[in-house]
Amino acid sequence: MSFSSPSSQTRTYWSMFSSSWTIVTFVLVMSMMTTTCISAETRETSFIEHCIRMKIISPPPVAKRYQRMVDFGRIVCRDQFRIVWFSIRSTGKLPKHYLEALCNIYNDDQKKLNGYVKDNFVGSDPQKLIGGETCATIREYKKKLLKAPPPSLKKL
Question: Where would you find the membrane-spanning parts of this chain (predicted)?
Fold first, then answer.
């Protein structure tokens, strides 16, 4: 009769536990990533629209005890605005998704949109930044974009 040592039994148990834990973690991460992708496609408002609304209606100051905690909303907004500035530097115009978000916020009021651009992008020509786009042309562009098949299917 041979008995295995208790340490080898424990080691076998923990190796089984760690592999099953890895599988469960992998399944959870994959499901969260899939859910995030699906919700990002079907969501009515974009990240940039949320960030602009936060900028217009400034949130109350954060309590001192929460200042050290990581605020992912502010990190995402900072990155979104960085993308907008990069687009302005490279093309000289505001990106269409930014203008679309402004149209959603101001209910397609072109005067308010021009005023926002004029007030927030000081030193730049608002008409040049907007690039002749109106809320109506942006909506038409989005409709065409949604109706078009993906580029990979055009080749077939």
Answer: 12-33
Predicted confidence (pLDDT) at residue 39 exceeds the cutoff of 50: no
The domain spans of the chain are 44-60+69-149
How far is Cα 35 from Cα 22, in angstroms, rounded to an integer?
A: 20
CA gap 141, 109 in Å, rounded: 18
CA–CA gap between residue 135 and residue 147 (Å, rounded)? 19
7 vs 121: CA distance, rounded Å: 68
Amino acid identity, residue 147? K
| Whole-number Cα distances in Å, 40 to 22, 24, 35, 44 | 27, 24, 8, 9
pLDDT tens per residue, range 18-27: 667 777 787 7
E strand segments, the chain: none
